[in-house]
Amino acid sequence: MDTQSKNKRNASKPRIVIYGLGQYGKMIARLALDKGWPIIAVFNRAGPKVGEDLGHVLGLERDIGVVVHDSQSGDYGGIDADIGRCHPSGPSE
After folding, report:
1. For the purposes of burial, counting CB atoms within 10 Å of the CB of 60, is it exposed (0-12), middle (13-18) or buried (19 or more)?
2. Angle at CA 39, nearest 5°, toward 58 and 55?
3. pTM for this one?
4. Which residue, among 38, 39, 35, has the nearest Cα to 18 in the 3D structure?
5. Where do the domains of the chain lie?
6. SS3 of 65, please?
7. Cα(56)–Cα(77) distance, rounded to whole angstroms?
């Protein structure tokens, strides 16, 4: 993608990647969804959230089409995002 195309995309809706779905990761995910910003990938450490649709993890009781991936085995190579939220270490979430 050329720079001009990326700039046009950035001006409209940033594409979001979230790494860590604790309290703050979920808050950012809800904010992005409220603003209509596409969440293109979500990663979390192994546990019950991995494999679940983000909508259910957020308590929306509906699928939004984004599955939570294991942060250890996730494929980061093909991600084309504008914003990344990362909280890879810290207290248990």
Report:
1. middle
2. 25
3. 0.77
4. 39
5. 21-36+44-71
6. coil
7. 26
Residues with Cβ within 8 Å of 64's Cβ and at least 6 positions away in sequence, in order, are: 33, 39, 53, 54, 55
Four-CA torsion 44, 60, 10, 2, nearest 10 degrees:
60
- Starting at the edge strand found earlier in the chain, the sheet holding 68-70 runs 68-70, 39-44, 16-19, 83-86
Supply 20's token pair: 């860590």
Q: What is the pLDDT of residues 66-88, one digit of tens each?
A: 999 998 888 888 888 887 777 65
SS3 32: helix
Q: What is the pLDDT of residue 8?
A: 56
